[in-house]
Amino acid sequence: MFYSLGRYILLLRLSFRKPEKFKVYWAEIMREMVSIGIGSLGIISIISVFIGAATTIQVAFQLASPLVPMSIAGSIARDSTILEFSPTISSLVLAGRVGSSIASQIGTMRVTEQIDALEIMGVNAPGYLISPKVIAGMCMVPMLVIASILLAITGGYIACVVSGDVTPADYITGVTQNFAGLTVRVALIKAIVFGFIITSICAYQGFYTQGGALEVGQASTRGVVYSCVMILFADLVITRLML
Amino acid sequence: MIETKNIYKTFGENEVLKDISTQFKPGRNNLIIGGSGSGKTTLLKCIVGLHEPTKGSVIFDGENFTEMNFEQRVPIRTHIGMLFQNSALFDSMTVEENIMFPLNLFTDMSKSEKLDRANFCLKRVNLEDKNKLFPSELSGGMKKRVGIARAISMQPKYLFVDEPNSGLDPKTSILIDELIDELTKEYNITTVVVTHDMNSVMGIGDHIIFLYNGEKWWEGTNKDIAKSDNKELNEFVFASKFMQAAKAKL
Question: What domains sit in chain B, N to C, each tagged with a CATH number?
Answer without folding.
Answer: 1-79+156-221 (3.40.50.300), 89-155 (no CATH)
